[in-house]
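If your schedule permits, I should be very grateful for your opinion on a structural question. The matter concerns a single protein, recorded as an amino acid sequence and a row of backbone structure tokens. Could you please explain, in whatever detail you think fit, how the structure tokens follow from the sequence? I set the record out below, with my sincere thanks for your time.

——
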Amino acid sequence: MTPRLRRYGGADLRQVVVPLIAVYARVREPLLHLPNYAVATFAERLERHGGEPGFGAVLAFDDEDRPVGYAYGNTVEEGDRWWTRMGEVDARFTRTPALALKEIGVTTPHRGTGLARRVHDELLAGRAEAHVSLMVNAAAGGGKVRRVYESWGYTAIGTSRPSPDSPALTSMIRPIAR
């Protein structure tokens, strides 16, 4: 059965926290021993991001109503720390609100099936922002993850290290409408 997608907004944060944390733990299981990927660290980030303007999330559920994929993000404006920690970013990207894609992932059985792209596209559907930006560990999957984002239309615009425990990340962007 094809996983069903459900959209959530900022008002739904309490409803989405438990399934989001559950699917995050399954997706990131091999990395949970690292401080930046620990479930408690993710839960703290989710709580902070969920309270920021324009929060939205999409979860994918299997036929037994278990979460098997997710994406979430929120609106960022010029001067937001999302942009400032990237260094010099072209003003055409920062002068208008953008969607910061904070997290995306699917469980192992659903990788390579197109589910991540479906979740991604559903998160972007109907958004008012002109661009969507994300950060990716260029080493993830031996570079495969970055190449997937490039195939979705993202281009690199800089690097970032969101926290001392975080690996160096490649900052990427693309127009929402394509």
Remarks:
- Strands lie at 4-9, 56-61, 67-76, 98-106, 131-136, 155-160, 169-175.
- The chain is about 30% helix and 30% strand.
- The longest helix spans residues 13-27.
